[in-house]
């Protein structure tokens, strides 16, 4: 018959599979044979088995019975602590460890068990106490303890401390080196990771798949996809087979640089070597598929990623599956699909609930669409489920969503109610105020950021200059630009010069803008010339506009926006032959002008309109109300700005063309569908037409609505005959 030495091995085998049913059956035999009453070795094995099988309640019950009978020892405590760590309850593991050390001396296994718990919740102070205990008890010399301490500090982001511990270790193995390489990779210190990696090669330390995967993952996280692919090729030359983690990191690398071909090659490798093989782990398969969905989405192959998503059974999808698909849609221009999928996720009767990353992706989609109503519903869900109280990035996304959906005051409320803020929180609010033309408030927030002890970086100054530009605060913008390097140590980049060209150009100071470009320490990028070209359109400077357009052509930055701006400049100057030449050039080079589209929120969702649109069921009512409004505002001083009708026809016909612009149609629909006093929220995919801006300003005098219009550049709040932009748009 089996004895007290047999059962621990059998129970360990059950835990390794893991097989709860077999383990429970063996436990029953243990009880029948009486080993559960006095044999601590067998009982400890039962605790460990249940822990590995995920049966925490059974493991705890066995442990409590051991304690009540007074036969428990340090191994019993190690087993229950390990059970909590393995099953994702590090806080309970720490509580049990504290109870253990009150009655028993912890051994090396105890420390190796508890240090990962400290790492998983970032409890570096507790980990430091364990480190001190190891030093006092002489346990640090154990290589497993040393490795666990290095790993704990690394996962808490304290790489300098981890490096000191690593240097003090007399005996190191490949795990020690891997912990350091992985730690450096995870916090983005790729050069340190690579340096250590090369040192391992020089010292002839065996590089295993974990080492290579750590370097690949580090490059992937920093967006250095091609470097990661190069490391992967080296790994294959060395004869090592990648594991699931390697392939997921490799797919992330392909996604970061849009390397679709290499992503497909990785997909093929996964099919041959991992996916759908007999005996393969379904969890591993899902990790790979999630990585593939993410890669195809970020490589702009949304149809393929959606096909892969749909191929997974609803019950087999995890939160990552949903998040990468929703995020893929949100990031790459399919925001409506992102929100539909998010709604479907919430309506499904399953246990997969969105996490903070899913919520952030959905809020990003709301930001892109200016979908304030949907964003508010998500905010309510966040409040009910307390996401914003534990996840800073969710609160930051709420600030961004409200600002980009036209309610910057709500963004400020979210900001003011945050317990903790980081640089993104402050920058998001500054951006929001800038978009709405509230430059003074933007600069007040910037001053508050400095008082809070945060150091402004290059991104902060981009949004500060943007806010100055859209509020006509030219002198303040110049002051901040000049103080960037002297006062804050931030060297102006090409994006800062582009903001300054925009700032000066909007104010009509085109000669100063040109001098600034000529004095740039780097080659002007397309964004600089586009800013100048846009200013030339506003201030009708044909000669300088032609020069800016020529520079864009030399840089091979050919997009519909640049051609359209130049065509508009020629049309405004009534140079119709040049307008025809530009249109012919666009046709010859295959560049198509994006059609203007405006959408407005109504009672039953969002409706979109194109120029001259007559497809809506309420078309007749819309055109009728628009005709009435135009006649009324003409009586109080509105004159159609026919220069914005870019066709060589008479002024009367130009007026008819202006009448059908998409933003006017959206406004008419909004008036029909909104109760008096309710704001009308319109979004346009391009810059608002100058005539429409003038007309809507007049219309806001005679209707009982605030009109909030978001175009490709900023927000316009029309109320009582004035606009928040004050002409700086």
From TrEMBL:
<keyword id="KW-0677">Repeat</keyword>
<dbReference type="Pfam" id="PF20430">
    <property type="entry name" value="Eplus_motif"/>
</dbReference>
<dbReference type="Pfam" id="PF14432">
    <property type="entry name" value="DYW_deaminase"/>
</dbReference>
<comment type="similarity">
    <text>Belongs to the PPR family. PCMP-H subfamily.</text>
</comment>
<dbReference type="InterPro" id="IPR002885">
    <property type="entry name" value="PPR_rpt"/>
</dbReference>
<dbReference type="Pfam" id="PF13041">
    <property type="entry name" value="PPR_2"/>
</dbReference>
<dbReference type="InterPro" id="IPR046848">
    <property type="entry name" value="E_motif"/>
</dbReference>
<feature type="repeat" description="PPR">
    <location>
        <begin position="318"/>
        <end position="352"/>
    </location>
</feature>
<dbReference type="Pfam" id="PF20431">
    <property type="entry name" value="E_motif"/>
</dbReference>
<dbReference type="InterPro" id="IPR011990">
    <property type="entry name" value="TPR-like_helical_dom_sf"/>
</dbReference>
<dbReference type="Pfam" id="PF01535">
    <property type="entry name" value="PPR"/>
</dbReference>
<feature type="repeat" description="PPR">
    <location>
        <begin position="39"/>
        <end position="69"/>
    </location>
</feature>
<dbReference type="GO" id="GO:0003723">
    <property type="term" value="F:RNA binding"/>
</dbReference>
<feature type="repeat" description="PPR">
    <location>
        <begin position="73"/>
        <end position="103"/>
    </location>
</feature>
<feature type="domain" description="DYW">
    <location>
        <begin position="637"/>
        <end position="729"/>
    </location>
</feature>
<feature type="repeat" description="PPR">
    <location>
        <begin position="422"/>
        <end position="456"/>
    </location>
</feature>
<dbReference type="GO" id="GO:0008270">
    <property type="term" value="F:zinc ion binding"/>
</dbReference>
<protein>
    <recommendedName>
        <fullName>DYW domain-containing protein</fullName>
    </recommendedName>
</protein>
<dbReference type="GO" id="GO:0009451">
    <property type="term" value="P:RNA modification"/>
</dbReference>
<dbReference type="InterPro" id="IPR046960">
    <property type="entry name" value="PPR_At4g14850-like_plant"/>
</dbReference>
<dbReference type="InterPro" id="IPR046849">
    <property type="entry name" value="E2_motif"/>
</dbReference>
<feature type="repeat" description="PPR">
    <location>
        <begin position="208"/>
        <end position="242"/>
    </location>
</feature>
<dbReference type="InterPro" id="IPR032867">
    <property type="entry name" value="DYW_dom"/>
</dbReference>
<feature type="repeat" description="PPR">
    <location>
        <begin position="173"/>
        <end position="207"/>
    </location>
</feature>
């Amino acid at each position: 018959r089996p004895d007290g030495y047999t059962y621990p091995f059998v129970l360990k085998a059950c835990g390794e599979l893991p097989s709860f049913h077999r383990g429970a059956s063996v436990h029953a035999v243990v009880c029948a044979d009486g080993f559960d009453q006095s044999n601590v070795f067998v009982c400890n094995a039962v605790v460990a088995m249940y822990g590995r099988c995920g049966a925490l309640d059974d493991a705890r019950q066995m442990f409590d019975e051991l304690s009540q009978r007074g036969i428990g020892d340090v191994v019993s405590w190690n087993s229950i602590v390990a059970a909590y760590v393995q099953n994702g309850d590090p806080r309970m593991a720490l509580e049990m460890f504290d109870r253990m050390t009150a009655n028993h001396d912890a051994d090396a296994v105890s420390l190796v068990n508890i240090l990962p718990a400290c790492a998983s919740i970032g409890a570096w102070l507790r980990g430091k106490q364990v480190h001190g205990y190891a030093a006092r008890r002489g346990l640090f010399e154990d290589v497993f303890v040393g490795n666990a301490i290095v790993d704990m500090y690394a996962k808490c982001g304290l790489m300098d401390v981890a490096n000191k511990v690593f240097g003090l270790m007399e005996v190191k193995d490949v795990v020690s080196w891997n912990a350091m390489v992985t730690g450096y990779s995870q916090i983005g210190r790729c050069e340190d990771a690579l340096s250590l990696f090369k040192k391992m090669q020089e010292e002839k330390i065996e590089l295993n798949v974990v080492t290579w995967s750590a370097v690949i993952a580090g490059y992937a996280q920093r967006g250095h996809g091609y470097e990661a692919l190069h490391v992967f090729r080296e790994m294959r030359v060395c004869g090592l087979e990648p594991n699931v983690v390697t392939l997921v990191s490799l797919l992330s690398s392909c996604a970061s640089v849009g390397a679709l071909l290499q992503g497909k090659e990785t997909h093929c490798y996964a099919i041959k070597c991992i996916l759908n093989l007999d005996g393969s782990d379904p969890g591993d398969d899902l990790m790979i598929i999630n990585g593939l969905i993410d890669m195809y989405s970020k490589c702009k192959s949304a149809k393929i990623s959606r096909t892969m998503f749909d191929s997974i059974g609803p019950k087999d999808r995890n939160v990552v599956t949903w998040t990468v698909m929703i995020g893929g849609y949100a990031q790459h221009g399919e925001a409506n699909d992102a929100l539909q999928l998010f709604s479907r996720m919430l309506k499904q009767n399953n246990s997969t609930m969105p996490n903070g990353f899913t919520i952030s992706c959905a809020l990003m989609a709301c930001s892109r669409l200016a979908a304030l109503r949907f964003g508010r519903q998500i905010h309510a869900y966040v409040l009910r489920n307390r996401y914003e109280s534990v996840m800073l990035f969710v609160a930051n996304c709420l600030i961004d969503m409200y600002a980009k959906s036209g309610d910057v005051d709500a963004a400020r409320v979210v900001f003011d109610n945050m317990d903790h803020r980081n640089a993104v929180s402050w920058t998001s609010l500054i951006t929001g105020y800038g978009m709405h033309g509230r430059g003074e408030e933007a600069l007040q927030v910037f001053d508050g950021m400095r008082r809070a002890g945060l150091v402004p970086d290059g991104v902060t100054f981009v949004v500060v200059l943007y806010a100055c530009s859209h509020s006509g605060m030219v002198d303040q913008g110049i002051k901040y630009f000049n103080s960037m390097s002297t006062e804050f140590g931030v060297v102006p980049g090409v994006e800062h010069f582009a903001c300054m060209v925009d700032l000066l150009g909007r104010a009509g100071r085109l000669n100063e803008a040109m001098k600034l470009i000529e004095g740039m320490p780097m080659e002007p990028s397309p964004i600089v010339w586009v800013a100048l070209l846009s200013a030339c359109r506003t201030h009708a400077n044909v000669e300088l506009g032609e020069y800016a357009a020529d520079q864009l052509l030399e840089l091979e930055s050919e997009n519909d926006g640049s051609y359209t701006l130049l065509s508009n400049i020629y049309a405004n100057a009534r140079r119709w032959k040049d307008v025809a030449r530009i249109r012919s050039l666009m046709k010859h080079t295959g560049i198509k002008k994006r059609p203007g589209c405006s959408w407005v929120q109504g009672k039953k969702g969002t409706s979109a309109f194109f120029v001259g649109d007559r497809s809506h069921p309420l078309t007749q009512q819309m055109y009728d109300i628009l005709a009435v409004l135009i006649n009324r505002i003409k009586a109080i001083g509105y004159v159609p700005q026919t220069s914005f009708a870019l066709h060589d026809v008479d002024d009367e016909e130009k007026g008819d063309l202006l009448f059908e612009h998409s933003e006017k149609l959206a406004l008419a629909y909004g008036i029909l569908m909104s109760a008096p006093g309710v704001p009308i929220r319109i979004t346009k995919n391009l810059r608002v037409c100058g005539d429409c801006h003038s007309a809507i300003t007049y219309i806001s005098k005679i209707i009982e609505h605030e009109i909030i219009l978001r175009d490709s550049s900023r927000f316009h709040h029309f109320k009582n005959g004035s606009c928040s932009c004050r002409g700086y748009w």
